[in-house]
Amino acid sequence: MPAKPRLGQNFLNDTHAIERIAGSNGDLAGRTVVEIGPGAGAITSALVARAAHVVAIELDTSLADHLRTQFAPERLTVHQQDVLSFDFAAAAARAGGPLLVFGNLPYFITSQILLKLAACHASLDRAVLMVQREVADRVTARPGSRDYGLLSVTVQMYGPAENLFTLPPSSFSPPPDVHSTVFRWRFAPRFEELGVEETGFPAFIRKVFAQKRKTLVNNLRAAGIAPPAIAAALAQAAIDPRARAEALSIETLAALWRALRVTGSSA
To answer: Rounded to 5 degrees, what are φ and ψ at 130?
Structure first.
């Protein structure tokens, strides 16, 4: 099947990589797995051989039709739709338990898909995803590193993520202009553990990372928080007033959010 660059299609043709991806989410026996962007079905074939049932989400009509001709309907269900509108909760209910997810994510909507999966965490177990290498480095970055930022904290609030391996452009047809990294994400939200709210804390994180070059204090001031409240919260959370958000762990950021709540500040 010919790829359509306008849809971000780059088909994986590395047999060894396909087997590594299919084996990176643990034992699939008896499980329902969801594949995002199956394309021509290279990874799909390996998943069908391992899982009880595969649910493929494919936007391209011709590719969706092609997949339906390649696999028996009792092994593969194809949804021809945008993954951003897919109902993961309903799929998990039909499966009788949380889903395992695989996906070669289109580069131009990677962040939106990650946010969608985070929002659907209650229906998911683990995900093995292939993204642009630079994005994977940001997703799995640790505090204080060059790549650590809003995406790192947003993903890691919903569970640990780890890079598995990186593939060169030659592993795809047509070859993309970038390397691609496969990472694994286990859904284990940390909101209760951190003592923060699932609605309020992510909004706070967006504020403190709003301008990466600015200090934490300046970003909080720009968010409308009064300087005395900021100073009191920083002292309570034992944070250097000169610090930037990218130097702080999720635990420290959570402590700051709780301290601001104590002062009655809107954060």
So the answer is: -110, 125
Query: For residue 213, what is the DSSP state?
Result: T
State whether 92 and 15 are in the same domain.
yes
Instruction: Take residue 9 and report the two structure tokens written for it.
Output: 């299609």
Decide: residue 259, CB within 10 A, 0-12 exposed, 13-18 middle, 19+ buried: buried
Omega of the bond prior to 174 within 30 degrees of 0, cis?
yes
With H, G, I as helix, E, B as strand and everything else as coil, classify residue 206. helix
132: phi then psi, degrees, rounded to nearest 5: -60, 140
Beta strands 124-132 and 99-104 are parallel
Do residues 118 and 154 lie in contact, with contact meaning Cβ atoms separated by under 8 Å?
yes
Quick one: tokens of 176?
């993309």
Instruction: Output DSSP code: residue 59.
Output: -
Is residue 129 within 8 A of residue 182, CB to CB? The reply is: yes
- Say how far apart CA 152 and CA 68 lie, in whole Å: 37
> Six-digit token pair at 69?
């001709």
Residues 234 and 173 in one domain: no
H-helix or E-strand spanning residue 36: strand 32-36
One-letter amino acid identity for 2? P
158, amino acid identity: Y
- Residue-wise pLDDT for 125-182, tens only, equals 999 999 999 999 999 999 999 999 999 999 999 999 999 999 999 999 888 889 999 9
The answer on 211 and 235 residing in a single domain is: yes
CATH number at residue 57: 3.40.50.150
Q: What is the tens place of the pLDDT at every residue in 74-131?
A: 999 999 999 999 999 999 999 999 999 999 998 889 999 999 999 999 999 999 999 9
Are 94 and 110 in a shared domain?
A: yes
Upstream peptide bond of 241 is cis (omega within 30 degrees of 0): no
